[in-house]
Structures
1.
Amino acid sequence: MSLAHSSAASTSSAIPSPKGARNAKFAEFSTQALLPITSRPDLVFTHGKGGWLYDHDGKRYLDFIQGWAVNSLGHCHPVMRDALATQSGMLLNPSPAYYNVPMIELADLLAKLSGLGKVFFANSGAEANESAIKLARKWGQLHPNASGGARFEIITFKNAFHGRTLATMSASGKPGWDTIFAPQVPGFPKADLNDIASVEALIGPDTVAVMLEPIQGEAGVVPATEAFLKALRALTKARGLLLIVDEVQTGCGRTGTLFSHQQAGIVPDIMTLGKGIGGGVPLAAMLCGDEFAVFQPGDQGGTYNGNPLMCAVGLAVMRTVSAPGFLEFVRAQADYLSAGLQHLSSRYGGEGERGAGLLRALLLGRDIGPQLVEAAREMTPDGLLLNSARPNLLRFMPALNVSRDEIDQMLSMLDALLAKHV
Ligand SMILES: *Cc1c(COP(=O)(O)O)cnc(C)c1O
């Protein structure tokens, strides 16, 4: 052990630090100290600007992943850099036990934009969802069933994704996740998306809520239909259940409206936000209607929750996304991207495309997604970063301010790839 440790130490001191390097070799980086959690390609990103990322070797990549639908304004947007610079010179963290200015302003903005009166800040989507689960269980204690028992069951959906904590993994319906870290947190029966009878069949005396993504992102951009969302809203109201929407991926302008559920004309009781709200920094939120704000002091919290640095960035992002004209722009770019993807699909015999706003999937009709992702990344002189959420499709989540030029470049690169691989 100590031998291995000292040899690793001497290796790293023998090689000059490649931090921030341009034109470095991948082998110069000692990556072995990183716990392997995913198989990463042999490249190290050093900087990014707008729609482009640059690697250790100076090669650039057109980025249609954007940190997994996170960088709403692209890489290193000036409004975010300004917010970080200004706030970092003022106050980083007074503790969550005190108010700070960005926390107050962002909560107020989110409440106004969403119509949900109360906001709790978190650091990740999973944590925001944990909060929603806790809030629903608390509400179920205060509103028990006919025999006086606390209600705690939350109906979720097959193939859903709600995060990687134990409770949010249990709420998720990803195949295999029920056994990977068994035992699961109990109380998350799974219904079928877009099948209201399957939800109704699961409602029992312990049921307190139904929770879903308006569009299942990780499942491959699978939308809940407008009719289903409306039926779910009516059903939950009629049966005294809370409706929780997980808008971690679909929220904050991603789908062409500020929040995706607005397109179905429904109002949820609880909503969670993450990813795009921080534009790339760790920020998330749980929102609820005033009547559901049942946490007592001490029930919920967290060291970094509502810290002014992240809230200042979130405020800059949300002001930009909610500014007049921004969402119209997103919808115009989305129509353009959608038409381009449809065109490619008919040209190469695929199964069309789907999605909302700038969260879209191209249905390939065969399991070549991972192959295309790799070939796209390895293209020269410029690479292309794509995601294959399922082997038979590609998912697109560019910056919300993506340009037509960038969409055109992506489509022509994808055209060349499909010509080779189909
Ligand atoms: C990404 C995602 C999460 C988890 O967010 P983290 O910030 O990774 O914890 C939860 N729900 C949905 C719908 C997501 O897409």
Note: The longest strand covers residues 207-212.
2.
Amino acid sequence: MIARVFVLIVVSITSALANTNNNEVSESLKISGNNHRNHFVRGLGPHVRQTWGEPWPEPQRRTLYGENFMVVRMALFRFKVTNFTCDMIDLALKRYYDILLGAGAESQKLKMRLVVNQAERVTTGYRGHLDVLEVNLLSSCEYLPHDNMDESYKLKIDTPTRPNRGVLVANSNWGILRGLETFSQLVHHSRNHSAFRVKSTFVQDFPRFSFRSILLDTSRHFLSKEILLKNLDLMAMNKMNAFHWHLVDDQSFPFESKLYPELSGKGAYNPYTHVYSRQDVAEIIEYARLRGIRVIPEFDTPGHTQSWGPAVPDLLTKCYQNSTIAGRQPVPDGTFGPIDPTQEKNYRFLKTFLGEVVDTFPDKYLHLGGDEVDFSCWKSNPDIGAFMRNENMTRYESLEEYYMQKLVEIVASFPEKKVSIVWQEVIDNGVEIEKDSVLVNVWKGWHYQEELGNVTRMGYRALLYSCWYLDMISWNNDWPGYYACDPQNFTGSAGQKELVVGGGAALWTEFVDETNALSRLWPRASAPAERLWSSADVKDVEKAAPRLEEHRCRLLRRGYSVQPVNGPGFCEQV
Ligand SMILES: *[C@@H]1O[C@H](CO)[C@@H](O)[C@H](O)[C@H]1NC(C)=O
Ligand SMILES: *[C@@H]1O[C@H](CO)[C@@H](O)[C@H](O)[C@H]1NC(C)=O
Ligand SMILES: *[C@@H]1O[C@H](CO)[C@@H](O)[C@H](O)[C@H]1NC(C)=O
Ligand SMILES: *[C@@H]1O[C@H](CO)[C@@H](O)[C@H](O)[C@H]1NC(C)=O
Ligand SMILES: *[C@@H]1O[C@H](CO)[C@@H](O)[C@H](O)[C@H]1NC(C)=O
Ligand SMILES: *[C@@H]1O[C@H](CO)[C@@H](O)[C@H](O)[C@H]1NC(C)=O
């Protein structure tokens, strides 16, 4: 009762605010030229009304059987493993049991209820209660998530072939994880909080793209282990499967190396508090593994490496300034540029250091960066000039190519046979890499469709990030723009489209730290999550908005501070 009164009050406050803001809204719409106006309904009540018990991202196939639904009696509910299992599955069942039980925290009474409420029993479509979800894994578990993992599953809730039963079937443990997430989203409160319901549904699901990532930058601002773990939870709740960890950059070096402890000792913002210990890293990798998420570290070189400098003598190029006295040699100006590519000992260092990285992170992929190399310091340095003349190099791009080529060879020489990911410039500047041992990370906002065409025409596999730089914020609901971007929407053959293996959302942290990382990222990142998982024809913003509204409320109810996504509104059951 108390909860319902509260909700009514919230509605009236919200609509009062919505009314006073109308003029401002229309002004801003004009200014930003936003064309999602239809979506922005004004007047009494929330702008978008949430759905009830609809999943995000939208499954590939989902059939509903009329208005049919079953009531889940939480006090009796359990998962029943009917075939293979392993620790990862057992832990996931515990986790999802807690998530289900946590749903609608206000109604302890509802959770304990054994007898289905009369109101539910007389509702059209009532099909009895569902106390068991059978979990049928058809093979033994794989240990590490990987680039070809099978994430498909089928979920049958009171279908004609399985009346009054709930069954989750998957070929692999990864499919079971994804299916459990879907099931946990289908279970919802009835609109008036008299029971937990699940609609009679047949879901047959698999991802459209195999690579669906979130990039977090932990150099511009340090993000604590707790935030990274919470982000992994949120990724799992959006079926994303790769954590692209941009660990270090110019500003700080928070990764604690065993072989070179002075890297974080001298390069972290604070070597005691702003570092990831080896144990932290192991814990993050394990937490991700249990959720079917790969952890791909990025050690961006040769640019973006100022924080490496203090620990490794002569690693960075010395920059020079011209002497003011005519005829004098230039002199070092005390600043440093990208890694000095002319020094053999730098490659020996990189081989040892990256060897440690490869031992630490079990994923087959390693991100080598290679973006935004500033040539001005190389240009100023007379030794670099002499080296280039000696090597018959006339362009600084060739020097960058020389460096990246050697780096890629180092990575290829590791017995673990890693695949390198590089930012697009590496390929734009003509570095030639064996096609199966590299993924090209397209990130520049301009002409990304043309770039995808170019990269795949050369036969490289590609990842698209350009559309999803979520650190960039703007007035209004920006997710429809993210939602509209399709990684296969470029001019090219079917074979070229196949080479796009996915994409990701990036959160660079110049203006982001623990206080706002998760709320800025979610649920805005849910838009690319659905784009990368669901079928290409799931693209109607009007249809998606109420489902996203529910998803945001769901994440909030599960305890994550995620921001409003559709303008004025409110969440029930929080
Ligand atoms: C809501 O629940 C009450 C009883 O708790 C019931 O009388 C009413 O019909 C229900 N309304 C709907 C729309 O389900
Ligand atoms: C268990 O898995 C095996 C192997 O895939 C399969 O043949 C069998 O039908 C499954 N058992 C049940 C009860 O579904
Ligand atoms: C230094 O002077 C030379 C000759 O005047 C010029 O070509 C070069 O661009 C200058 N370099 C810098 C870094 O200013
Ligand atoms: C540079 O060019 C000269 C003249 O063509 C040639 O003799 C020399 O071997 C070249 N050096 C390298 C490193 O390719
Ligand atoms: C794509 O390739 C064409 C032909 O080489 C080139 O002119 C164009 O600039 C490239 N586009 C991008 C975005 O790099
Ligand atoms: C593809 O992108 C163009 C803009 O470059 C856009 O107009 C078009 O609607 C997009 N098509 C799809 C299917 O997303």
Note: The chain has two domains: 61-205, 213-302+352-374+391-540.
